Amino acid sequence: QVRLVESAGGLVQAGGSLRLSCASTGSDFSIKNMAWYRQIPGKQRELVASIRSTGSTSYADSVKGRFTISRGNARNTVYLQMNSLKPDDTAVYYCYVSYFGLSGDYWGQGTQVTVSS
Fold first, then answer.
1. How many CA atoms lie within 13 A of 65 on its CB side?
2. pLDDT tens, 8-65?
3. I need a surface site. Which of 3, 22, 70, 111 has the fewest CB within 10 A?
4. How far is 49 from 76, CA to CA, in rounded Å?
5. Helix, strand, coil percentages for the chain (3-state, nearest 5)
6. Is 87 helix (H, G, I), strand (E, B) or coil?
């Protein structure tokens, strides 16, 4: 059974950095896309960054130049390096994965990131 395990988020001061990780386990299918989303209470979940199997990446305008998405050497882990954090980055961050040959969307459990001013 597919399972996504996210690292813990945390509390960081504005201007600081934090790295999130998400590991995919329990699947023999190749990973298609990996992404990070975030959600603030009362608002829709928004895409922060994504990385395709080809390695191409995309970012929300609000995080361009500050956040970097990458995949680990084992290809089953995705990272989100967050630099120059702002209070507006405070949210619950969710890992997302899709697989070749496997229908459905898979989500991590979510991890809280809080940026204090």
1. 3
2. 999 999 999 999 999 999 888 889 999 999 999 999 999 999 999 999 999 999 999 9
3. 3
4. 16
5. 5, 55, 40
6. helix
- With beta carbons less than 8 A apart as the criterion, state whether 79 and 70 touch: yes
Half-sphere exposure of 39 (CA within 13 A, CB side): 13
98 token code pair: 């899709």
3-state DSSP assignment of residue 89: helix
Tokens representing 115 are 């940026």
Encoded tokens for 18: 């934090």
Residues 6+ apart with CB under 8 A from 79: 19, 20, 21, 22, 68, 69, 70, 71, 72
| Residue 74 clears pLDDT 80, i.e. is over it | no
